[in-house]
Amino acid sequence: MLLIALTGGIGAGKSSASALLVEKGAVLVDADAVARDLQKAGGKAFGPMVELFGEGVVGADGELNRAAIAAIVFPDKEKLAALNALMLPMIGAEIAARIEAERASDNVVLLDLPLLGMGTTNNYGTQAMIVVDCPVEIALDRVVNGPRAMKREDAEARIAAQITREERLKLADFVIDNSGSPADLALAVDECWKWILSLA
Length: 200
What we know:
Layout: E1 2-7, H1 14-23, E2 27-30, H2 31-39, H3 46-53, H4 66-73, H5 77-102, E3 108-112, E4 128-133, H6 136-145, H7 152-161, H8 165-170, E5 174-177, H9 182-199
Helix pairs in contact: 1-9, 2-5, 6-7
């Protein structure tokens, strides 16, 4: 198994890049997807989340309203810290189990970790780091005017809660530039995959 971390700020296009790498044969362990699984009704984190933030964060469908939770935690450092203290150990244990399941394989395992470099999580023994990058203004535009349609001030609060673009780039062994078109991204991912295979 070759274990590679993949990170990038909100709106950088990490999901698009990881989907293209999966098409090439990588196995994806996605921290956000793990968190969503844990937070589903009946999941390990559902009850503790409702206890932490109140019944108002449960939507009409009986599931947690992630947008409502985001609106509570991103402007408030203490509430964000409380959320991280609850979720990170659970997410960490589940990620470790999913990586362990691949340990004996020859697979390229991509660990998609949005919090990498924030001192809030370990890197699970990753052997290299890929950063998906674009200028902050482009990322903001995508988050506000793309499918997420987030309010600009909410998007800015999320960006402010993450490490800076410069700090993230310092961590990179390989940078996927996603400031252009989807075709440009596909070419950048082709180059990244060649680099990954050179490591293997």
